[in-house]
Each structure stands twice: as structure tokens, then as C-alpha cells.
């Protein structure tokens, strides 16, 4: 199904559903930006269309009877169901590079590898994979950061011992 | 003012003070508050960040050539890192309302960047020309 979206008052597209979903995930298309596809009566905000904004919504298994039935009206249920899906997925790339260079331990490398994968996975529409890579990048970055901090604390402690022994 | 904004502003102030301290003190002669690389202390090898403090000292005094000799990778990445830190800080303060730009990796680089950093790590530890040009000197 070909979707159109409005950006800065201009019609953009057509794009596939997968592309549009990934654009919402990256924040390129905001929840409040209007989207439209053939068969819809009017443009609606992307956040109100379940198949675009919902990460966990499966494509309809059976052919949709009427175009309108695939569109969810704004409801508390939609908003509550997947609040996380409405945010872009952070890639932690900057943090991963920083801990690798500043903390000096090899644990930063898996962080960079996972961080570098996030955007490619989003572009391919693999949202679950992207979130997984994002989480792993975050975890490894924290491990590396922790090791770097321990090393600095140890270094300061050694200096402290040196000062005390000279007293 | 929320707690995150205060934390980020505090971080920025500490960062600026650290840069000033780094500008005034040469890590070659004065290691006060400028700890050496722990990986290098333990293994004797150079990590991708080794020479970074000295490169920072050279950069803070606008000696780009010297900075490149100490850690070329860091000097190349630094502009992106500075922008990245600012954007990530902003995104963190704004939380889920943040809709601005973030640092995104071009598609072809998803393996390229890790490869460059790991490659830099390995090559700068090979003790012969031309690889030793990458080691801090």
C-alpha cells in the first residue's frame, strides 16, 4: 500500500508502509505529521494510524474489508499500548565511541558494533532488531564506562597511597 | 529547570573547566588530574584513545599538527563527537519530546566505523614504519 505524508505543508511520497514506519521511528515523520493513503477520506496524524505508529501491530492477516477499518481512531488504548514505540530509537553511537576512546578498554568495541547497526536495522524496518541492538550498545557502553571509572579510582587510590607513604 | 537540565549544565561546566586545565598543563610533564591510560599501564599497548590527553593539550593550544601526531583518529572524530555530545545532551534533557536531529550513521558505514577503530587499535601497535606513525609520538 502506497502512503503519502505531509512535511512542511507539502505532500511527500509515495512510500511503502515499512518505510513510513521506520521514518516515524527515526523521528523523520512526527506523530503529528499528517499521512494519507488511497481510500482514506482525509489526512490524519501518523500517531493515530495503528499500523504506522504501533511497533507490535501485526499486518492484518485477512484482507481488510473497508479501508476505514484499518485506521484506528485516537483512543487511550492506542496511546497506552506502546508508549516506547512513539520515540525514535537511540543508537548510542556517540556514547560508545566516547567510552572506547576515553575508558580505553575493549568493552567499548561491542558497544560501537551494536550502535553502528541500529540505524541500518531501522532503515530495513527491523524495529525489534534495532531496539535490541540499541539496548546491547547501551549495556556495553555502561560496562566500558564502569571499567574506566574503576581504573581512574584505582589510579587516584595509588596516588593517595604514594602521598601517605611519603608523610 | 528540571534535574536533567541541571545535570547537563553541570557536566558542561566541568567539561569546560577540564579543557582549561588541559590547556594550561602539559600531560608530558604534569599528570595532576590527567590520568594516563589504564590499558597502556597494564598491557604496555596503545589503545585507540592513547595520546588523547596530549592531543587535547595540543588542540587546546591550537597546535593541530602536534595533536595529529599524538592521536590522529581522535582529532578526526572530535568535531563529530562534539556535535554528538551536544545533541545527545539536548535529547536527554528533552526526553521523549525531542524531535530534533541526532547523530546517524550513513548506511555504508555500519561496519566501516567499528572496523576503522579496531584497525587503528591494531595498526598503531605494530612497531615498524609506517604503522608507528599512528602511535603517540
End-to-end distance of chain B: 45 Å
- CATH fold descriptor of the largest domain in chain A: Dna Ligase, domain 1
Total beta-strand segments of chain A: 4
Shape of chain B: globular
User: How many DSSP H or I helices of chain B?
Assistant: 6
Share of residues in helices of chain B: 55-70%
CATH class type of the largest domain in chain A: Alpha Beta
Distance between the termini of chain A: 78 Å
Explain briefly what this protein structure is:
With about 170 residues, chain A is of the alpha+beta class. Chain A contains 6 helices and 4 strands, in the order E-E-H-E-E-H-H-H-H-H.
Write the layout of secondary structure elements.
The complex is a heterodimer of chains A (167) and B (137).
Chain A: E1 3-7, E2 10-15, H1 17-26, E3 34-37, E4 44-45, H2 50-53, H3 76-81, H4 93-103, H5 108-123, H6 127-166
Antiparallel strand pairs in A: 1-2, 1-3, 3-4
Chain B: H1 3-24, H2 38-43, H3 52-60, H4 64-70, H5 72-94, H6 112-123
Quickly list its features.
heterodimer, A: 167 residues, alpha+beta, Dna Ligase, domain 1, four-stranded antiparallel β-sheet, rod-shaped, B: 137 residues, mainly alpha, 0% strand
Amino acid at each position: 500500500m502506497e502512503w503519502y505524508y505531509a512535511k512542511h505543508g507539502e505532500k511527500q511520497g509515495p512510500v511503502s508502509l515499512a518505510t513510513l514506519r521506520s521514518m516515524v521511528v527515526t523521528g523523520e515523520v512526527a506523530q503529528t505529521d499528517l499521512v494519507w493513503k488511497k481510500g482514506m477520506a482525509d489526512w490524519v496524524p501518523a500517531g493515530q494510524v495503528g499500523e504506522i505508529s504501533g511497533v507490535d501491530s501485526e499486518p492484518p492477516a485477512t484482507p481488510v474489508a473497508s479501508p476505514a477499518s484499518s485506521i484506528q481512531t485516537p483512543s487511550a488504548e492506542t496511546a497506552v499500548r506502546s508508549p516506547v514505540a512513539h520515540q525514535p530509537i537511540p543508537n548510542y553511537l556517540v556514547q560508545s565511541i566516547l567510552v572506547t576512546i576515553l575508558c580505553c578498554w575493549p568493552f567499548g568495541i561491542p558497544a560501537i558494533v551494536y550502535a553502528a547497526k541500529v540505524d541500518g536495522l531501522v532503515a530495513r524496518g527491523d524495529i525489534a532488531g534495532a531496539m535490541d541492538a540499541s539496548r546491547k550498545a547501551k549495556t556495553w557502553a555502561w560496562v566500558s564506562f564502569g571499567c574506566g571509572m574503576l581504573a581512574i579510582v584505582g589510579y587516584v587510590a595509588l596516588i593517595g597511597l604514594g602521598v601517605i607513604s611519603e608523610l | 529547570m528540571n534535574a536533567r537540565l541541571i545535570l547537563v549544565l553541570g557536566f558542561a561546566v566541568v567539561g569546560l573547566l577540564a579543557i582549561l586545565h588541559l590547556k594550561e598543563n602539559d600531560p608530558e610533564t604534569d599528570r595532576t588530574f590527567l590520568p594516563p591510560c589504564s590499558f597502556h599501564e597494564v598491557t604496555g599497548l596503545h589503545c585507540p584513545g592513547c595520546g588523547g590527553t596530549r592531543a587535547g593539550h595540543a588542540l587546546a593550544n591550537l597546535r593541530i599538527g602536534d595533536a595529529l601526531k599524538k592521536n590522529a583518529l581522535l582529532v578526526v572524530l572530535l568535531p563529530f563527537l562534539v556535535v554528538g555530545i551536544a545533541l545527545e545532551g539536548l535529547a536527554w534533557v528533552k526526553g521523549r519530546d525531542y524531535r530534533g536531529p541526532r547523530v546517524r550513521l550513513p548506511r555504508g558505514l555500519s561496519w566501516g566505523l567499528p572496523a576503522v577503530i579496531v584497525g587503528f587499535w591494531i595498526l598503531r601497535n605494530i612497531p615498524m614504519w609506517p604503522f608507528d606513525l599512528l602511535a603517540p609520538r
